[in-house]
Amino acid sequence: MGTVLATGNQAAGQVLAMAGEANRSARGCGGGAYPITPQTEIAEYLTGHQFAKGSFVTAESEHSAMAVCIGASVMGARSFTASSSNGLLYMTENVFAAGYCRLPLVMVVCNRTIGPPWNIWVDQGDSLAMRDSAWLQFYCESHQDLVDTILLSFRVAEDERVLLPAMVAQDGFLISHTAMRVDIPEQGEVDRYLPALRLPQRLRPDHPVLYGSITLPRETENHRRDLEAAMAQVPIVLAEAIDEFESVFGRRPHGAFSAEQTADADAVLVASSTMSRTARRVVERRRARGEKIGLVGAKLFRPFLRPELVGAIGSAKRVAVLDRNLSPGSGGIFWNEVAVSLRQRADVVLQGYLMGLGGGDVTDGHVEAALDDLLGLAESGEPVFFPARVA
Amino acid sequence: MNAHVADGLLRAGNANCAGCGMTLGLRWFGEALAGTTPLLAIPPCCATVTSGLFPTTAYHAPGIATTFASSAAVGSGMSRVLRQNNEDQPVVCWTGDGGTYDIGMATLSAAAERNEDVIYVCYDNEIYGNTGGQRSSATPMGAKTTTSARGKVERKKDIMAIMAAHRVPYAASLSLAHHDDFVRKVKLALGLGGFRFLLMLSPCPAGWKCQPDESVALVRMAVGCGIYPVFEVFDGVRYRVNVRPDGTPLEDYLARQKRFKSEGLDVDFLQADVSARWTQLRALEEASPAEDEECATLDDVQTPAVAVSCEVRS
Ligand SMILES: Cc1ncc(C[n+]2csc(CCOP(=O)(O)OP(=O)(O)O)c2C)c(N)n1
Ligand code: SF4
Ligand SMILES: [Mg+2]
Known about the structure:
The complex is a heterodimer of chains A (391) and B (314). Chain A is of the alpha/beta class. Chain A has 2 domains: 2-249, 3-Layer(aba) Sandwich (Rossmann fold); 258-385, 3-Layer(aba) Sandwich (Rossmann fold). Helices cover 40% and strands 20% of the residues of chain A. Chain A has a 7-stranded mixed β-sheet with strand order 3-2-4-5-7-6-13. In chain A, β6, α6 (143-158) and β7 (166-171) form a beta-alpha-beta unit. In chain A, α3 runs parallel beside α4 (85-100) and α7 packs across α8. The radius of gyration of chain A is 21 Å and the shape is globular. Chain A starts with a strand and ends in a 6-residue tail after the last strand. Chain B is of the alpha/beta class and 314 residues long. Chain B has a single domain, classed as Rossmann fold. Chain B is 35% helix and 13% strand. In chain B, a hairpin with a 3-residue loop joins β7 (230-234) and β8 (238-243). Chain B starts with 20 loop residues before the first helix and ends in a 27-residue tail after the last helix. Classes of the chains: A alpha/beta (391), B alpha/beta (314). At the A-B interface, β2, β3, α3, α4 and β9 of A face β1, β2, α3 and α5 of B.
């Protein structure tokens, strides 16, 4: 398809559909979708698309949309959907069901503030609320990152060593509704990258099993151990998927964490989604002034690869985590993960900054100020709202 | 493992209580399947427990345990993928009244509205059996449950009327006391396409406080006194009563179940309700197009058919 001007939602809809088409020589694709701002265009695209082998159900709710995906997937189809905010929360029970049933679905989440009070702008709290659902979670920083990560996520999710669903998050409006130049692959390339889905637990008429029925604590604990073991395979499978991506599409998306100018850094910013790009500009400006500042772009949130993060941070003695989300009573959710990862690094001053909650702007100025704050700290502190006062 | 359902849908070792109506229902349903293997979607309810512990199953067919409100939507996804692969196995949602009348109502309604190619069976034990016998909107007025200690105050929801109002190709109530009619209707449903709804009054000795060996007799009485009408509706417009009440007194049916020994039981009101329902049913039956008349179905028209649009084809 080449380079086109597309919004995040247009690009996501097209790439999801191409992934579905790529399974046409096997059992096809299918699923359900339900509209919610800012995801709506994806639901419209999927339910309106004429698939060579597949169809989308215009469900009556997100709960059912995910249920349709579960039904389609367990019959061997490639399945995917998209949601946001309260829609995702309404879907929650079946989000967990898909994760626990090891169904390799892909869901694009357009991050949006949870209400009431109602607010349609970006906040990562919706997808992060699903962090314990046994789904992989990717947070994309750009339109191209979104396209590439959707393709990567199918590859990783469907790998038999993983077999877990994947959420691919984009910032509502900031990506979903802005148009940028983006490379959309050809169907032939997607066909090459995504082999036919072979779901080991597919229901087959000659094999009676009630998939997901009753288990006792012993089997349940084994199941949870299996989930953890599958998550542990993600780094290996993701690395392979990135190599393969490069050979098919000629681009190399970054993995769980990007380590940018961290090798000699005194201080490192950890940021996700579009905040990474704002932080990148700040890092470049500071570097130009001779300051040793680095950036870790956090893309993969589940599994959270702690050793990789520690490696990406390197020897920096100061770390700031930018969170566009809040777990009331506990601070930023990325900060929590980073704090656990750095638990053996008593030499690090770690500070969490809560910014842009409910879609407030995160400007270069905000990030500069947070960085200055970090550089002046004597010790680690509890996460703070930043700037201290809402403008 | 080479399984087919020639020898029944339910195998030995299932976990149902003695005298459970659902057990008999599964056996007769399996008989009607006559060797066809269905794919099951089962929400949490006694029928999940029926299966026993994973990975063994008492069902002689594959299936998925869905979340409580989701069986009709999971079934929709399953049947679409089967059909796009030119596979014709029936998808059967096997559900309780809680998953049908209550928490799954919106899901059921939507799948019916979309006319998904699914057979939806509700075994109606008139309580949440799995959680120990709480009221549902299928619990009859006057019945005691653990959440209606003095007898339920509200009337039972008329699910057949609701499904008929969706103008699904086929909706029928099955009687566990009328084997031939039961099997005929399941076979008929299996031969049709689109959304098919089957209701089955399913005695639950544990919740109804009745004797396990009386289940079939109780259904016979429920049909006989008219509290459980046995009929079928085609396309939401053509009604056919299959078994008519035989004058069994309503009190006799109630008296056999301790759940109706409640302060809240008003037999006169219940009787009036039953009579009113039958007046309505008879009128619907009389107003139905004759059997050899075809009424407009979804295949014929763009917009769903309504009673007045039924035309006689010569
Ligand atoms: C969302 C959700 N809420 C509550 C439950 C608990 N629960 C499991 S089965 C059940 C009642 C089922 O009743 P019914 O559908 O009538 O089937 P029965 O148990 O009578 O066979 C309830 C309340 C659940 N599993 N999921
Ligand atoms: S509780 Fe009732 S419905 Fe459930 S298995 Fe026992 S008899 Fe059957
Ligand atoms: Mg019940």
